[in-house]
């Protein structure tokens, strides 16, 4: 399949799927997310592929959902239409990454914000470069309740997640490493090689044992409430989309964001 907004490369037993809109800081349009989901399924079904890496071309992993596209195409959506759109592209696609039977690694440099943060954190592991930074400013700046998939308490701990979401601040790679959200931090020029090395190490393990181990680890998370919490938050997030607070904040914020030419960043 030919893709227009992602790039796919095979490096040995490792499939690399890149966000490929560097001029837009890899903003996730509906096309990009559809392509990423299709490429993930393709890689999962390919017997030659042992590990899947999700990355981003250019200076950033992804600055989040393509807000400009959202403004143009989905501004007039009903509650039902928004629910269907977000359920498919954000909740289902995210959980497909989480549930992928093969190990997944996010390879993160530069901005990893909101929707980008969501995709990266669905991966089993994250390798980040020193310049990587993470943020979910959706509560603070848009008055919605975080991004659609609230994996935050599971990947960074409850206290850190509260501060991160209540302030909307950026978290650097070293802090993310300290909190255990990121597996390792390397210098920017070494990022892809370090990620490939980790992937090859995993690719050399017996694949069925790896698959079973991942299932068990994910089930442990489910027993701690992961899936129920994720599904509950998705509905809460939909409620936040129809509040007066959201409408007022979004209108003011979006106008300012568009004026700054940075409309691609956020919810
Ligand atoms: Zn949303």
Automatic annotation (TrEMBL):
The keyword NAD does not apply. One of its GO terms (molecular function) is enoyl-CoA hydratase activity. Keywords: Lyase. It holds the Pfam family ECH_1. It is an enzyme of class 4 (lyase). The keyword Membrane does not apply. InterPro entries: ClpP/crotonase-like_dom_sf, Enoyl-CoA_hydra/iso. Its EC number is 4.2.1.17. It comes from the Bacteria. NCBIfam families: PRK08290.1. Belongs to the enoyl-CoA hydratase/isomerase family. This is Enoyl-CoA hydratase. It comes from Dankookia rubra. The lineage of its organism: Bacteria, Pseudomonadati, Pseudomonadota, Alphaproteobacteria, Acetobacterales.
């Amino acid at each position: 399949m030919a893709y227009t907004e992602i790039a796919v490369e095979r490096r040995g037993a490792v499939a690399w799927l890149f966000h490929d809109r560097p001029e837009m800081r890899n903003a996730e349009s509906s096309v990009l997310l559809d392509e990423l989901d299709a490429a993930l399924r393709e890689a999962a079904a390919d017997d030659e592929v042992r590990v899947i890496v999700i990355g981003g071309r250019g200076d950033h992993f992804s600055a989040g959902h393509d807000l400009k596209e959202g403004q143009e195409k989905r501004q007039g959506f009903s509650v039902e239409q928004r629910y269907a759109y977000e359920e498919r592209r954000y909740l289902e696609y995210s959980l497909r990454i989480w549930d992928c039977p093969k190990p997944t690694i996010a390879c993160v440099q530069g901005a990893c914000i909101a929707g980008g943060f969501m995709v990266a954190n669905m991966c089993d592991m994250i390798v980040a470069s020193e310049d990587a930074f993470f943020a979910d400013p959706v509560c603070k700046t848009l008055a919605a309740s975080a991004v659609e998939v609230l994996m935050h308490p599971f990947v960074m701990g409850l206290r850190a997640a509260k501060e991160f979401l209540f302030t909307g601040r950026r978290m650097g790679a070293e802090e993310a490493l300290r909190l255990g959200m990121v597996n390792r931090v390397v210098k920017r020029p070494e990022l892809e090689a370090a990620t490939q090395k980790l992937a090859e190490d995993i690719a050399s393990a017996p694949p069925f044992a790896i698959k079973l181990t991942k299932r068990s680890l994910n089930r442990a998370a489910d027993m701690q409430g992961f899936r129920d919490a994720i599904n509950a938050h998705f509905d809460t997030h939909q409620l936040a989309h129809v509040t007066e607070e959201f409408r007022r904040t979004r209108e003011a914020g979006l106008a300012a964001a568009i004026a700054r030419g940075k409309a691609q960043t956020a919810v």
